[in-house]
Specification:
Elements: H1 10-24, H2 38-42, H3 88-97, H4 103-106, E1 114-115, E2 121-125, H5 130-135, H6 142-153, E3 161-165, H7 179-196, E4 200-204, H8 205-213, H9 219-222, E5 226-231, E6 234-241, H10 244-249, H11 254-270
Parallel strand pairs: 2-3, 2-4, 4-6
Antiparallel strand pairs: 1-3, 5-6
The structure holds uracil (URA).
C-alpha cells in the first residue's frame, strides 16, 4: 500500500462504492443470499434422455395502460377465498397468516393500523417506511410527525382518527408497491375500511387515491376534491390529500395541504 493511499484495496473500494450506490438508489434490503435465474426456473423441463430444450423466445406483449379498475392479476393465495373478517383482530390475524403478497417476506413485520377504530375519519397512506417497519405502526417516521402536525392544525390527533396503509408491509427500499402487491392487499384494506366504518375517508397521496377511488390523474389534479368511496354499497365521502412525505420534499406545497385540511374540517363540521 502506498503512503497516503486509501486503506481499502481497489476491489474493496469498488465494492464499498457499489454498496453505497445501491443504498442511495434505495436498495437496502437483501431478499435472498443466492442469485436466482428466474428465466431458467420458468423454462420447460427437458424431456428425459432428450437434449435440453430452450424456452422459445416470446416477445413481451405491450403492457396495457394502467387503469383505475383494480384488481389486476390477483396472485395465488389471494384474500378472495377467505371469509370476511368479523373484527379488526380477525382481519389482522388473516393478514398475519396471508402468503399472497411477496412484501411480507422482506418486511420486518405487519404494520396494521394506529389510532381509534371507533373514529369517524380514516386516513389511508401508501405503505410503511423503514421506521414504521421497525415499530409496527403506520406514520411514525418524519412523514408521520408531519401528519400529526397536520391533524393538530384542525384540532385532531390519533385518538380521533384511524390510520392505515393500502399495503401493510414495507416495500424494500421504500419503493412504490407494484400493482400486483397492491391488488393482493386490496381486499383486506376494503374490509378494514368496512370494519372501521368511518364517515369520511382521507387518501394520502396518489397511490392511496388511485387504488381506493380508482381515479387515474396525478395528485395535483385530484387533491382537495371530494369523491364517493363505495364501502360495501354505502357511499362515504373521500378526499385526496398530498402525502406528508411529499410535503417534506416540497414544503412550498404545504399551502395546498392546508387548503385541503380546511376542506376536511368543513366537512366534519357539516356531519
Ligand atoms: N408513508 C406511508 O404511506 N405510510 C406510512 O405508514 C409511512 C410513510
Amino acid at each position: 500500500m502506498s503512503v497516503g493511499s486509501d486503506p481499502l484495496s481497489d476491489d474493496a473500494q469498488a465494492l464499498a462504492w457499489l454498496l453505497r450506490w445501491y443504498a442511495d438508489m434505495g436498495v437496502d434490503a437483501a431478499v435472498d443470499p443466492i442469485a436466482h435465474d428466474r428465466f431458467a426456473e420458468s423454462a420447460p423441463a427437458p424431456k428425459a434422455g432428450g437434449p435440453p430444450i430452450r424456452a422459445p423466445f416470446v416477445p413481451p406483449s405491450p403492457k396495457p395502460a394502467a387503469t383505475a379498475s383494480l384488481p389486476i392479476d390477483v396472485p395465488a393465495g389471494a384474500a378472495e377465498g377467505l371469509p370476511p373478517a368479523r373484527t379488526l383482530d380477525e382481519l389482522r390475524a388473516q393478514l398475519l397468516a396471508f402468503e399472497g403478497c411477496a412484501l411480507k417476506a422482506t418486511a420486518t413485520q405487519l404494520v396494521f393500523a394506529d389510532g381509534n377504530p371507533q373514529a369517524d375519519i380514516m386516513f389511508v397512506g401508501e405503505a410503511p417506511g423503514a421506521d414504521e417497519d421497525r415499530q409496527g405502526l403506520p406514520f411514525v417516521g418524519r412523514a408521520g410527525q408531519l401528519l400529526d402536525k397536520m391533524l393538530a392544525a384542525i384540532d385532531l390527533d390519533r385518538r380521533h382518527v384511524y390510520i392505515a396503509n393500502v399495503v401493510p408491509w414495507r416495500p424494500p427500499g421504500n419503493r412504490t408497491p407494484t400493482p400486483l402487491e397492491t391488488s393482493a392487499c386490496l381486499p383486506f384494506m376494503r374490509r378494514q375500511i368496512e370494519l372501521v366504518s368511518p364517515k369520511i375517508l382521507v387518501c394520502l397521496g396518489a397511490a392511496a387515491t388511485q387504488t381506493l377511488i380508482g381515479v387515474k390523474e396525478g395528485i395535483m389534479r385530484i387533491r382537495g376534491r371530494w369523491y364517493d368511496y363505495d364501502m360495501a354499497g354505502a357511499r362515504i365521502p373521500a378526499i385526496a390529500m398530498l402525502h406528508p412525505a411529499y410535503l417534506l420534499r416540497q414544503p412550498s406545497h404545504k399551502k395546498f395541504a392546508w387548503q385541503d385540511l380546511r376542506e376536511l374540517a368543513k366537512k366534519m363540521r357539516a356531519m
